[in-house]
Amino acid sequence: MLSELKARLKAESCEEYLFQLFEKIEKSSLNAFTTLAKESALKEARRFDKNPGRGLLAGVPIAIKGSISTKGIETNCSSRILCGYIPPYDAHVIERLKAEGAIIMGKTNMDEFAMGTSTETSCFGPTKNPWDRACVPGGSSGGSAAVVAAGEAPCALGSDTGGSVRCPASFCGIVGLKPTYGLVSRYGLVAYANSLEQIGPLTHTVEDTALLMETISGHDERDSTSAEGARHSYLPGLEDGVAGLKIGIPKEYFGEGVNKDVEKAVWEAIATLESLGASWQEISLPHTRYALAAYYVIAMSEASSNLARFDGLRYGLRQGEDKDWHTTFSEIRAKGFGPEVKRRIMLGTYALSAGYYGRYYLKALQVRTLIKEDFLCAFKDVDLLASPTMPIPAFKIGERINDPLSLYMADVFTVPINLAGVPAISVPCGFAGHLPVGLQLIGPHFGEATVLRTAQAFESATPFHEAQPEVI
Ligand code: GLN
Q1: pTM over 0.85
Q2: Is the minimum distance from the CB of 162 to ligand 1 under 6 angstroms?
Q3: Scanning 164, 248, 287, 365, which has the fewest C-beta atoms within 10 Å of its C-beta?
Q4: Best of 79, 411, 414, 418 to mutate for ligand 1, by most ligand atoms within 8 A of CB?
């Protein structure tokens, strides 16, 4: 827990603690960090040891996903096209972390440009799941989740466009939150699909997630979609319990295609919440079956437009001699992007092209509205929804990578949440064999306090967050 770590860092030496973490990372075979900021981090730790300061995260080391800009530290989105790119500025969340005294340890592996569910599309090769090295850690923030689960970093940031914080949290047995769209500034996050994504914490406990949310949330005028209003506080009220809370169980999120052990663990979790004083009822989110198709059309369309800026001329990969503009641009992009990114640029460009725009992109936007309405309607009757985060536990490395559709299908319970813009957390709720299972708790827009308080009540009543993989 970060509150205990903070006390320990003050009593002992932050430099020593950080030094031990780096030793562990250097011996690790998880392939979870892509860049280490060892020198600057140890310097910060020495400064902390001389003068601890009072920040919310004073002295706390943190790992950052490779798509979040960090001044002076390579930010390559695990893509060949951005290898060597060192941002001249910090993302808003990094400014906030530094202002509260956190220490940036380095950057973590991810699916290339956050496009994936397994961290296998990284140009650095897959990260391994600390619970079973033959398995994927989930994605796309797989590096961030693996380092926390394996004890290589006490906490991390990821980003979630269609599940990329919650999926790896679920597969690695830790806590991960996708905030309400607009709650955390995206300034400095390399864009994949702007209308869907949010930066979110990956931690061991719900309290740690609340602490990180308290640090990174809040208005930022440099992100035009950033929500107005005062900064929220998530720690007070965290222990208020779930007595009287009404939980909706979306019937479309159970049954066919859901692993039996996953389903069992989630129903047991619902029973636990009931025993703590909440009540539950079945509800329906009738447009769920259209969510995956709508998500992938929208995400790929936005990606094809966002990724047009990577031409190797202003930053990143630049190889060979310059030819005419079209040839140079094509050669750089052919070498710089991996197959999944190319697939999405092509499909997204197709969906946006004249003649098909109405049939695909516009249609997907209409479906998105229906999905959002499903959630708004459900939240008239209940305070919160509960479901599995992922329909399956972590799968084997290599098992699905050549079958993109089967990978996309794994996102079936996470993407509707991004389409609707509501918040959702994944908390460990048991095991399928030796692999962790995540419970997803979904709240109404800006309902983070309710989501966190419910997750906290569940965590306090269960031992799953204490389980640790036998690694290293
Ligand atoms: N797996 C989803 C995708 O590939 C979600 C990824 C993410 O949230 N960045 O689009």
Answers
A1: yes
A2: yes
A3: 365
A4: 411
